[in-house]
Amino acid sequence: MRKKLKITAIIVLIVLLFSFLAGVMLPNSAFASGTTNISAEYLERVFEVVKENYNGEITDGELLQGALKGMFNTMDPYTVYFTKDEADTFLSGIGGIYEGIGVSFEKDGDYVVIIDVYKSSPAERSGLVPGDNIVSVDGKSIAGMPVEQVQSMILGKAGTKVVLGIMRAGEKDILEVEIIREQIKINPVIYDIRGDIGYIRIKSINSNTDQFLTEALNEMDDKKIEKIILDLRDNPGGDVSQAVAAARKFVPEGLITKLDYKSEKIPDEVYYSYLKEPKYKLAVLVNGATASAAEILAGAIQDSGAGKLIGTKTFGKAKVQNIMPLLTPEAYKKYELLLGIKTVNAYEIVSVYGIALENEDIIGWAKMTTAVYLTPKGRIIDGKGLKPDITISDPQLIDNIDIKSIQKLSLTVKPTLNSMGYDVYNAEKILKILGYEVDEPDTKLDEKTYKAIYEFQRDSGLFPYGVLDFTTQKALNEKLEQIILSNDRQYAKAVDILNTQ
Asked: Residue 205 sits in which domain range?
C-alpha cells in the first residue's frame, strides 16, 4: 500500500458520509452540535438546497470536500482536513523524505540556479555544485518556467533517470549531467564542535531526526566531547516517536512521556528511557517557538534533571494529533457490501482486514487531536509551556538579522562575483552585522558583496581580492562565534554553565 496509508496509530472512527453522493443512506444516529441532534438526512437536505439554488458551477465532489473541511476546521487549531495533494505535502514534511536528486534552487533570470547540494546525494555524486544554472531538464528548455514547474520535472520516482543541462561559470558549453533519482532524507540537525563544547541544533523533529542526531553525537564521542548545548529554539515539533528516540540519548532511565488518549478504544502510550547513565553535561536552549514534540524532549530533560533549560517559556502545545485517511463515498459502499461494516476510516480497512487500498479509495485525510501528553512528573503543559530553569530574554535582531539563523560557512566551494549559494547568504549576514555595506542578504555574490569581502580581507590582514575563499570563510566563521557569544545571551549562559559544572 502507498506511503499515505502508513498510519502511526489507530484513530477513533468518524462517520461523516452524505448519502446523496453515492446512494448510501446512513443510520439515523446523530452527532452532537451543542444541544441539537443533526441527522444525516438533515445534512442531505442542506446539500439539496445548495444544488437546487446555487447559481454557479459546483460538483458533488467539491461540495463534499468543502463540507469535510468545514467540519474538521471547526475544532481546535490543530485539527484539519487535507485533500490528497495537501496530505502529500504535509506527510512529506513530517516524514522528511522525498524522491529526487538532493538540491535546492531558486529563480535566477530565465533559469534556476542551484544554491545548495545535499551531502551524499545523487546530485553531489554527479558533480553538481552551488552556482550551477539549470537550463534544461531531459532536453527541454526551462527558460521562463516557474520554479515550481522545474521542481516537478526534476522530482521523480527513485531509480529513474533525469538529465540536466547545466551552465557553469568558466565553461563555454552546456554540460549534460545524468542523475539517477534516489530517496532523499531531509536533515533537520545542524551541529558544530566549538572548543570542548558540542553545539547541536534540531530545527524540527521529522522521521530522520534520530538518524542525524546519532551521527552528530557519534562525532562528539569520537572527539571526546562531553559538554553539549542542545538548541531547540524555534523547533515546532513533529514526530512523537522521534522526540522519544532523541530523549533516550540524554534522559536517564525512567519515564519520558505518557500519551493520554480520549478514546477508550485506544490504549494510552507510555515511553521510557533505558539509559543507565547519561554521558553528557547538557544545556538546552528554548524559546516561545519551541513546541509540541520538541517540548516532549525538553520536558523530559527538565523533569529528569538531565540538563538545564535556558531561555524563555516554551509555546505550550501538549495536544497530540493522528492522521487518518477517509474513504470516498464509493469506497464506503464497496467495503460495506464486502465486509458488512460501516466505516469511513480507511485505516480500519487496512489494519483490521488487511486490505491494500487503492489511491482512488481515498477522498482525503483528517489530522485530528486525539490525545494529550504528560511530562515525566505528570505535568500537562498545554497552554502553559515549560518554564526554563534559567530565564534569559531572546536575542535581539541585529540589522534585522536573526543571529540564530546564521550557519557557519561550509569551506566546500569558493564563490566569486555572481556566484550563488548558501555560503554567500551566510557570509552576507556576517558582513552586514560587522558593519560592511551589503544589500539585504541573499544567495548572490553581487558587486557590493564582492567589495565588502575585499574590505573584510584587507581589514583582516588577508589577501584582498573579493573571492570568498576558504581562508576568508574561516575568518568569517571565527567572527560569527564572537558575534554569537556577544549577542546571544542564552547561548553564552549555556557555555558558562557547562564550563563551571
From this structure: 189-320+371-391
